[in-house]
Amino acid sequence: MSSLPGTSTTTGPEATGTGQLPQLLKGMPWLVWRQHRAVFWTVLGASALAVACIVFQRSQLQLDGYTPVSTGLRLVPILLGVFLGAPLFAGDLENGTAKLVVTQSVSRTRWLTTKLALTALVVVVSTVALSAAFGWWWNLYKSEVTATEWISESTFNNTGPVPVALALFSVFSGVAIGVVLRRTLMAMVVTLGFTVVVQLVWSHFLLSLGNVVTSTTSRGVMTETPAQTLPAGAHQMDGSHPYLTGDGKLLGWNTCADAQTERARVVCLQKADVVGWQVDYLPISQMNGMQWFGASILLALTAAVTVFLFFWGRKRLV
């Protein structure tokens, strides 16, 4: 009987992966690791180097590299989806390895499960390490955080559970795209576009993950803006209509904008029945809750993609 490329029918040390990985992996897991060991080691090695860089920057109490590192980390889910997820099965379907698998004693379901599980393990280990290291570094910055920093993608998407969930969804989506298209290069290109769109859509709906808090005052309009009256680290939502009238209506910033003096402005606002400010904001205290809520949505989508892979793969993964 034929065997999978790179495998052996012996039962000695070579069959258990000696020289490739400690003998924690045997049988099908070892075969999957051996087949994809180059990309697996690349992902783990690159993550280890990134963590070492972050730890060094953190130990030196440096923040000058914060922006480029955070930008690089935002690309991790995209890169993993393109170079790890898309070719995972597309390569096997394209070069005929998938047909060889079905001639073995291993079922398609077991093959699919092992590949997905081992890939998910590599993704989780690498992204958890990156998230923990970057979050540790951000703690230096947290006490000085401004409204635009904690809610920005460079911080929100690189700490807590979000990078892990984003990476898993990107990788599994890439796997699904590869399984459907059955061509490695085409799957990688489509996955690149898909993961970029995912990032854009995610950024668009990011603020909706929180519970907006409304701050209202009817003590008149002072010289300060609403943002100056908010708690530290609060992210102000749409502030285009901050003026509150006596009957509860909101007026825009252009109200009395043509007043020549402060006195004229006050008189104008009084005539408009403006009694104070109303401003909506997201407090920084909601950050963790927003991250876990967002991660749960991404993980649910990942689970849906996984179900699709099993239904599709049981019949067409050849």
Structural notes for this entry:
The two termini are 18 Å apart. This protein folds into 2 domains: 13-209 and 286-316, no CATH class; 213-284, no CATH class. 60% of the residues lie in helices and 7% in strands. By secondary structure, the chain is α+β, with helices and mostly antiparallel strands. The chain is elongated and about 85 Å long. Strands 1, 2, 3, 4 and 5 form a 5-stranded antiparallel beta sheet that branches.
Helices and strands in order, then pairings?
Blueprint: H1 28-59, H2 66-74, H3 76-85, H4 87-95, H5 97-101, H6 108-142, H7 147-150, H8 153-156, H9 162-181, H10 184-205, E1 213-217, E2 235-236, E3 243-245, E4 250-251, H11 262-271, E5 274-282, H12 287-316
Antiparallel strand pairs: 1-5, 2-5, 3-4, 3-5
Helix pairs in contact: 1-6, 3-9, 3-10, 4-9, 4-10, 6-9, 6-12, 9-10, 9-12
List keywords for this structure.
disordered N terminus, 2 domains, 12 helices, 318 residues, elongated, single chain, alpha+beta, 7% strand, five-stranded antiparallel β-sheet
Tell me briefly what this model is.
This protein has 318 residues and is of the alpha+beta class. The protein has helices at 28-59, 66-74, 76-85, 87-95, 97-101, 108-142, 147-150, 153-156, 162-181, 184-205, 262-271, 287-316; strands at 213-217, 235-236, 243-245, 250-251, 274-282. Strands 1, 2, 3, 4 and 5 form a five-stranded antiparallel β-sheet that branches.
